[in-house]
Amino acid sequence: MPWERVAETSEVLTEMGADVTLRRYPGMPHTVNQDELDSARRLLRRAAE
Questions:
Q1: How far is it, in rounded angstroms, from Cα 18 to Cα 10?
Q2: Contacts of 36 (CB under 8 A, 6+ apart)
Q3: Digit-coded pLDDT (tens) for 5-28
Q4: What does the domain layout of the chain look like in residue ranges?
């Protein structure tokens, strides 16, 4: 997905009141890395509180 599209989506969601964190991993294939897994775990823990 082009980075410009990601940034545009982030702006739209932010304007709608979402808390958006953009992270870019240059050169990484389309996969999930440890940093993303850790972020998802933190998000789920906060949601469960």
A1: 9
A2: 23
A3: 999 999 999 999 999 999 999 888
A4: 3-48
